[in-house]
Amino acid sequence: MLPKRKGLWVGGPLPLGYHMKDDKIAVVEDEAERVRLIFHRYLELSGVNALVRDLRERDIRTKSRLLATGAIRGGVPFGRGSLFYLLRNRFYVGEVKYKDEILPGEQPAIMDRALFDAVQQKLTDQWTTRSTMRNASEHLLTGLLFDDVGHRMVPTHATKAGVRYRYYVSLPHLHGESKTASVGSVSRVPATDIENIIVKFLNEHLIAQKEKPAFSLAHVRDGKASLEQVVRIDVHEDRLAVRLKSADDAVSAQRGSNVARASSAPSPEVVAGLTKSFRAP
Q1: 20 to 30 A from 238, CA-CA: which of 30, 33, 166, 275?
Q2: Could you tell me the domains of the chain?
Q3: Is pLDDT of 108 > 60?
Q4: Who wins on pLDDT, 112 or 2?
Q5: What is the separation of C-alpha 217 from the centre of its chain, rounded to a whole number of angstroms?
Q6: Is the dihedral of CA 267, 271, 276, 279 positive or negative?
Q7: What is the pLDDT of residues 237-280, one digit of tens each?
Q8: Is it the case that residue 28 has pLDDT exceeding 80?
Q9: Whole-angstrom Cα distance, residue 18 to residue 35?
Q10: Using CA atoms, how far apart are residues 107 and 91, in angstroms rounded to an integer?
């Protein structure tokens, strides 16, 4: 059985608030005070960004470590990543995490459970709110995009050099089935580009149709509202086929029919520029 499975420390740098003394983990009191202050300030402030600023104003820094070479590591201002790690660290309540288990540790706790749990709840609540807001503001075309053989195109993202890039990807490609399943001519499209193209097209279309009661000018100013007119978008190599609700949908929907009509799409030149880098092999 591994030492950590027993709750024993297996080496590595100890977090702020602790050091090794006589081969045992001991509390560094001034550092422990700093840790408790950080937890309390997080509860008092609006979130981690405000906490970063607050700690910099107070000149509260990460733990300093003297290396065998004589160099000093750490002792720098806290960033978001280091604060999230600290605030989630169960080491401070005398526990260690082993795989999916939380085990009693050999180290003494340096804060009470109520404070730690309150911080965990706020972190979870803020992450949930942030994710909900981000999802609400992103991926405008979720549920509407399909490739040209009928596979749904779903939102995904990649991060390069710290920059987040959003895409819509055909399901067979996302699931690694592109060699065994029939695939469309386009495997993925950049999300922001296709969203801008579709919203621009819809706004122009709605302006042209403004004399019809089914379309109000409010939709022109609201990308999400204008997308309420869309039933489906099929991504072809040289065009986007946009299916819109008909002007009679309000009446037809009451009768249980699903009425849609094909619409003229953005120019082939625009679509070709959008899809040329993402065609299926």
Answers
A1: 166
A2: 3-136 (3.90.1750.20), 145-278 (no CATH)
A3: yes
A4: 112
A5: 32
A6: negative
A7: 888 888 887 654 433 323 333 333 334 444 444 444 454 444 44
A8: yes
A9: 10
A10: 8
How far, in Å, CA of 39 to CA of 83, rounded? 10
pTM exceeds 0.70: no
Q: Which two tokens stand for residue 252?
A: 């037809």
Residue linked to tokens 């003297």: 66
Amino acid at 62: T
